[in-house]
Amino acid sequence: MEEIAKDEMRHSEKLSEMIVDLGGVPSMQHRELNFGKGGPKGFLKRLIELEKEAITLYTEHIAAIPDAKIKKLLTHILHEEEEHLEEFTEQLRELGK
Ligand SMILES: [Fe+2]
Ligand SMILES: [Fe+2]
After folding, report:
1. Ligand 2 centre from 9 Cα, in Å?
2. N or C: which end of the chain has fewer CB atoms below 10 A?
3. Which ligand has the nearest atom to the CA of 12?
4. Range of the domain at 52
5. What is the pLDDT of residue 70?
6. Which among 85, 90, 88 has a CA at the least distance from the CA of 58?
7. How far is ligand 2, taken at its centre, from the CA of residue 69, in Å?
């Protein structure tokens, strides 16, 4: 769980660097936090939902953005999100759904 959190911090850092390289200003604003309900199983279900959402968005962005350097970064992040999804799904399975 801690390793995945570190991956997510790296995603945020790499994306921020890319935005700055492109002349933009990264925003630190985030949407309202929702950690899910119902203890560990509920939290894992929410995390699975978020990883799936991220996978859909990165897949769409990779298809839409022609720049090879950006595509490469997003593809790397996408693969890590797919690993996170697998890991959370496995943890939920271990808890007995
Ligand atoms: Fe991420
Ligand atoms: Fe993730």
Report:
1. 10
2. C
3. 1
4. 2-22+37-95
5. 97
6. 85
7. 20
Question: Residue 8 sits in a domain of what CATH number?
Answer: 1.10.287
Q: Is residue 55 part of a domain?
A: yes
96 CA distance to ligand 1 middle (Å): 26
Give me ligand 1 centre to Cα 39, in Å.
23
Q: What is the pLDDT of residue 28?
A: 84
Per the domain annotation, does 13 fall within a domain?
yes
Using the mean position of ligand 2's atoms as its centre, give its distance from the Cα of residue 3 in Å.
10
In the chain, the number of structural domains is 1
Give the pLDDT of residue 97: 62
In a domain, 30, yes or no: no
- On whether residue 28 sits in a domain, the answer given is no
Chain mean position to CA 32: 16
- Give the per-residue pLDDT at 71: 97
Q: Running along the chain, 97 residues long, what does each successive block of 10 average in pLDDT?
A: 96 97 93 91 96 98 97 98 98 90
